[in-house]
Design goal:
Helix content is about 10%, strand content about 45%. With about 650 residues, it is mainly beta. A hairpin with a 4-residue loop joins strand 17 and strand 18.
Length: about 650
C-alpha cells in the first residue's frame, strides 16, 4: 500500500504560492540559483559506517544537507518527491497451514495464511486467521471474529490513528497504524514528517485488550515476522521549520533564513522521537535511536533515515531498539536470516535538471538470525531500479536482483531507452559484490513482474506485448536467458502452481498495447527453453488489487482454487455496464480454468469491495470494509453475513 509522499506538501502551499515561486524564478540572484541546483546522485561506495558521537553526526548531517537547501527548504520547491511506480508483486508458494491439535482444545481446521514472498516469513496484511478466529483491520478498526460462532468478539480503535495492517502470533496481535507523529503533536513540523507510525500490541485472550502503543515520528514502510520476532521499518527525515518567500519575504531572504536554520539546527532535528503508552495510561518518551546506532554511506543527503525496530511478541513492546541507516527507499525484502533494505534514490530533494544522474539501487543487508536488533553486515549496488521486493531473491548465498535501467535521452523530446537486467550479488566481507549478470531483457520495455523459484527466474516486461523470460540461474556467475514467450498483455504477478506451472495475474491487451481487462493465465514452464501458455481467463473491463498487492491473491491447491478480487468498469465496447466489485473464484484443473462464481458483498452504507479471502475448513471467508461473509467452497452458498456496523 502506498502512503502519502512528499508531494502531499504541495497542497499545503496552494496554487497561488506555487505560481509566485515559478514566476519569480527568473529574478533569482545568481548565488540563489546555484543553491537551487541539486547535485545529482553519484555512484559512490555504499558501505555503511557509524557515527562516532552526536557532535560528529551533527557536523556531517549539517554539511550533507546544505547543498539541498533552497529558497523553499529542501530541493528547489521545498519538498522531496517520490517517483511514481507501479507496485506489483509475486506471492509465495504454499499458502496452507496445518495446525496440530492442542491439548484440551478442539482441532483447528486447516486454513490459509497471508500470501507472502518467502516461506516462514510472514508479512503484515488487512486480515489474518489462525483457524480459531479471524482478525481484521480492513476499515481502520481492529475486529476479532470467532470462527465457531461467526460472531464479533471484540472491536478496538487504535489509539494513535487508523489501523492499516496487522501481524498475528498465538494470542497476540501487533497492529500497525498511521497518525500524527510525536513532533507533530508537540510542535510545528513541516512536511510529511508530521506523520507518525504506530505499533500497538493487543492481547486476544477473551475480549481484545490493548497492552502498549508505540508511536514514532516518521512513515511506516514495511515489516517482516519470523516466528515471534517482528522487524518494522520506518522512514523519517529532518523536522525543520522551513521558511518560504511569502508574506513580504524575498527569495534571497528565504534562502538566507533556511541556510541559517540548517547551520544552527540541533541533532534532535534529525533524530526521530518515540512515545510509549501503557495500558494504564503511563507514558515514556525519548529519542528513537542513539547517534552511534546510525550508519551512513560515504555520501548521503541527510534528508532520509530508515530505522529498523525489533519487537518480541511474547515480551513487552518497548521502543523497538532501533538500528538506523541514512538512506531512502521503500523496498524491504526478508528471509528467515536476512533483512534487505533497498535504496532506489526515489526519495530525494527535487532536482531542477539532472538528466545524467545515474540510475542505481543501493542494497543493505542485515543479519536477523540472532535475537535482538539486526546487525548490518554488507552493502552493494546495482544498475537500474527495482519494481518491488519480488525483484530480490536470496538463494544459497546469492542475492538475485532484477532491475530496469533507462539511458539518458540524447534528444530532450525523446524518451530514454530502457532495458532490464538480473544481477547476482554475493557477500564478500562488508560488500555485496557482483558475480554475474544478464542484460538486454525487454529492450524498450520495463519490468512488470518478477518471480524467482530456486535456480530459475521469470521476468515479465511489457510495452505492447508480454515477453515472459525464463532464466537459468543455476550457475550464479553465468546467468543466462533460456526461453521467451511473447503474448499480448502482461502478468503483473506470478505465482508458482507446482508441477512446472506458473499462474499469472495481470491485464490482457491489444496488439497495440491497450489493456482490455483482467487476465488470469496458466503457463507451462516445465521446459524453461520453451514456456507456453496453456490456459487463460479474461474478464473484460476489470482490474484486480492482485496486480499491485499480492496479499489479495489466494491459491488453495487442496481444492484447486484460484481466488482474486476484481473491479469491473464500463468499457468502450460496453459503456453502459455498471461498475461492480466482487471476488472471482476459479478452479484450476486439467490445464484449464473454470469459473465457480463471483462472491459479492451487499451494503448501502460501507464500501462493499472485497479485499481479502481466507479458507477455513470447508468455507471461504471474504472480507470487505462492509463486513465478512462466509460461503461454502462447494457451490459458494452463503452461510453467514457479519456486518461491520
Amino acid at each position: 500500500m502506498r502512503r502519502r509522499s512528499w508531494g502531499t506538501r504541495a497542497a499545503l502551499f496552494g496554487g497561488a504560492a506555487l505560481v509566485v515561486g515559478v514566476s519569480a524564478a527568473s529574478a533569482v540572484p545568481a548565488a540563489v540559483e546555484d543553491w537551487r541546483i541539486v547535485p545529482p546522485i553519484e555512484a559512490v561506495p555504499v558501505e555503511l559506517v557509524a557515527f562516532d558521537t552526536c557532535d560528529t553526526a551533527l557536523t556531517e548531517l549539517r554539511n550533507a544537507i546544505s547543498p539541498h537547501v533552497g529558497v523553499y527548504g529542501l530541493g528547489n520547491s521545498g519538498f522531496l518527491t517520490k517517483a511514481d511506480g507501479q507496485i506489483a508483486a509475486n506471492g509465495t508458494a504454499d499458502t496452507r497451514l496445518s495446525v496440530p491439535q492442542a491439548a484440551n482444545e478442539s482441532a483447528v481446521p486447516e486454513h490459509s495464511k497471508t500470501n507472502a514472498h518467502e516461506a516462514g516469513v510472514d508479512e503484515p496484511d488487512l486480515a489474518k486467521t489462525d483457524g480459531k478466529r479471524v482478525v481484521t483491520v480492513v476499515d481502520g478498526k481492529l475486529r476479532v471474529l470467532d470462527v465457531a460462532t461467526r460472531e464479533i468478539t471484540g472491536t478496538l480503535d487504535v489509539p494513535a490513528g487508523p489501523a492499516t495492517q496487522l501481524l498475528l502470533h498465538e494470542d497476540r496481535a501487533l497492529v500497525i497504524g498511521d497518525g500524527p507523529g510525536i513532533a507533530a503533536r508537540g510542535g510545528v513540523v513541516d512536511g510529511p514528517y508530521g506523520e507518525g507510525a504506530s505499533v500497538t500490541l493487543v492481547d486476544l485472550t477473551g475480549t481484545p485488550t490493548i497492552l502498549n502503543t508505540l508511536t514514532v515520528d516518521g512513515r511506516y514502510v514495511d515489516a517482516r515476522q519470523v516466528d515471534g520476532v517482528v522487524r518494522v521499518v520506518v522512514h523519517s527525515g529532518p523536522s525543520l521549520p522551513w521558511v518560504y518567500p511569502m508574506d513580504g519575504r524575498s527569495l534571497s531572504e528565504s534562502l538566507i533564513a533556511n541556510r541559517e536554520l540548517v547551520a544552527t539546527a540541533p541533532i534532535e532535528a534529525w533524530l526521530p522521537r518515540y512515545q510509549l503508552t501503557g495500558a494504564d495510561g503511563s507514558r515514556s518518551d525519548g529519542t528513537l535511536v542513539a547517534c552511534d546506532r546510525i550508519s551512513h554511506p560515504v555520501r548521503h543527503s541527510a534528508t532520509s533515515m530508515l530505522s529498523v525496530l525489533t519487537f518480541d511478541f511474547p515480551g513487552e513492546l518497548g521502543s523497538g531498539d532501533a538500528v538506523t541507516i541514512m538512506a531512502d527507499g521503500d523496498t524491504v525484502y526478508g528471509t528467515g536470516t536476512s533483512l534487505y533494505v533497498a535504496d532506489d534514490h526515489h526519495l530525494r530533494p527535487m532536482t531542477r535538471a539532472t538528466p545524467n544522474a545515474p540510475q542505481t539501487t543501493a542494497i543493505h543487508q542485515f543479519d536477523i538470525s540472532q535475537p535482538g536488533p539486526p546487525k548490518h553486515v554488507a552493502s552493494g549496488q546495482v544498475a537500474g531500479t527495482l519494481l518491488n521486493q519480488y525483484s530480490l531473491s536470496d538463494h544459497e548465498g546469492h542475492l538475485r536482483v532484477a532491475t530496469t535501467s533507462a539511458d539518458a535521452p540524447g534528444i530532450p523530446e525523446q524518451a530514454p531507452a530502457t532495458q532490464s537486467s538480473v544481477t547476482v550479488l554475493k557477500r564478500d566481507g562488508a560488500q555485496l559484490k557482483e558475480v554475474g549478470r544478464i542484460d538486454g531483457l525487454g529492450l524498450g520495455e520495463r519490468i512488470y513482474s518478477v518471480r524467482f523459484v530456486g535456480p530459475v527466474g521469470y521476468v515479465v516486461t511489457f510495452r505492447q506485448v508480454d515477453p515472459l523470460y525464463t532464466l537459468d540461474l543455476s550457475d550464479p556467475t553465468k546467468p543466462r536467458k533460456v526461453g521467451e514467450l511473447k503474448i499480448t498483455g502482461y502478468s503483473a504477478y506470478l505465482h508458482p502452481a507446482g508441477d512446472g506451472k506458473l499462474i499469472g495475474v495481470g491485464q490482457e491487451a491489444t496488439e497495440q498495447g491497450r489493456t482490455t481487462g483482467t487476465q488470469v493465465s496458466l503457463f507451462d514452464v516445465s521446459n524453461p527453453a520453451a514456456p507456453t501458455k496453456v490456459a487463460g481467463h479474461h474478464l473484460a473491463g476489470a482490474n484486480s488489487e492482485v496486480e499491485f498487492d499480492p496479499h489479495a491473491f489466494l491459491y488453495w491447491p487442496a481444492r484447486d482454487l484460484v481466488v482474486l478480487p476484481v473491479l469491473t468498469m464500463p468499457t468502450a465496447e460496453k459503456p453502459m455496464t455498471p461498475m461492480s466489485s466482487g471476488l472471482l473464484v476459479l478452479r484450476l484443473g486439467d490445464n484449464a480454468f473454470s469459473t465457480l462464481g463471483t462472491i459479492q458483498h451487499e451494503s448501502s452504507t460501507y464500501d462493499a469491495g472485497i479485499r481479502r479471502a481466507l479458507v477455513i475448513g470447508d468455507d471461504l471467508w471474504t472480507v470487505s470494509a462492509a463486513g465478512i461473509q462466509v460461503s461454502r467452497i462447494d457451490g459458494l452458498a452463503q452461510q453467514a453475513w457479519v456486518p461491520f456496523t
